[in-house]
């Protein structure tokens, strides 16, 4: 898991709809809904301060939470949230109810290690990151914090594919029809092929033609 699990307190909402949601916000709370696990959706209201800091604290969509709804505890995974386009505060949150066998699709960050052990980077090459995140299908209670790409031995011109990454048990990439690229090691624009440099040094300037008399 990306972060430690946490608990939020919430109140059940009897009414739903735009009017009800606006009333919830006027009272300093954030409307939300819990759905999934073959149960009816449950409309709730969350404390604004609690959910604001969770959303902006990082790892919100990859961390399982427990929501205490009027004394009943429900395990959930945040699936989506909406922010006010101007003030950036939360206006609505969707939670997926977690059951024993719940599987989810989730974007997981990619971390790179051992850049100092990459011959290509040591020679001035540049790490070109194609995917900063990869979407995986996995058990909701086994979401990896991140995946690790080891750059040891990576030379200029090399591509690192998903098949080179060691994944935890039960974690599979959503894209399954190809061995997609996560990153490449490319030569920088400052690097000039040795043959080109040698040619420039070896070729003298043409002597000016002798003046005709």
Automatic annotation (TrEMBL):
The keyword Ribosomal protein applies. GO terms for cellular component: cytosolic large ribosomal subunit. Residues 104-187 form the Large ribosomal subunit protein bL25 beta domain. Keywords: Ribonucleoprotein, Ribosomal protein, RNA-binding, rRNA-binding. One of its GO terms (molecular function) is structural constituent of ribosome. Residues 8-95 form the Large ribosomal subunit protein bL25 L25 domain. Belongs to the bacterial ribosomal protein bL25 family. CTC subfamily. Part of the 50S ribosomal subunit; part of the 5S rRNA/L5/L18/L25 subcomplex. Contacts the 5S rRNA. Binds to the 5S rRNA independently of L5 and L18. This is one of the proteins that binds to the 5S RNA in the ribosome where it forms part of the central protuberance. This is Large ribosomal subunit protein bL25. The gene is rplY.
């Amino acid at each position: 898991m990306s972060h430690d699990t946490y608990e939020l307190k919430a109140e059940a909402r009897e009414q739903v709809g735009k009017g009800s949601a606006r009333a919830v916000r006027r009272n300093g709370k954030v409307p939300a809904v819990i759905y999934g696990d073959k149960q009816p959706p449950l409309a709730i209201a969350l404390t604004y301060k609690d959910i604001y800091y969770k959303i902006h604290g990082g790892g919100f969509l990859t961390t399982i939470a427990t929501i205490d709804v009027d004394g009943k505890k429900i395990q959930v995974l945040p699936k989506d949230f909406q922010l006010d386009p101007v003030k950036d505060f939360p206006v609505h949150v969707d939670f997926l109810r977690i059951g024993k066998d719940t599987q989810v699709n989730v974007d997981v960050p990619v971390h790179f290690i051992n850049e100092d052990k990459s011959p290509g980077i040591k020679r001035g090459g540049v790490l070109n990151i194609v995917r900063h995140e990869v979407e995986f299908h996995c058990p909701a209670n086994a979401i990896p914090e991140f995946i690790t790409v080891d750059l040891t031995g990576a030379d200029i011109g090399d591509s690192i594919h998903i098949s080179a990454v060691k994944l935890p048990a039960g974690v599979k990439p959503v894209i399954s029809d190809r061995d997609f690229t996560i990153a490449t090691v490319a030569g920088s624009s400052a690097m000039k092929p040795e043959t080109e440099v040698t040619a420039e040094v070896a070729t003298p300037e043409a002597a000016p033609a002798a003046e005709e008399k």
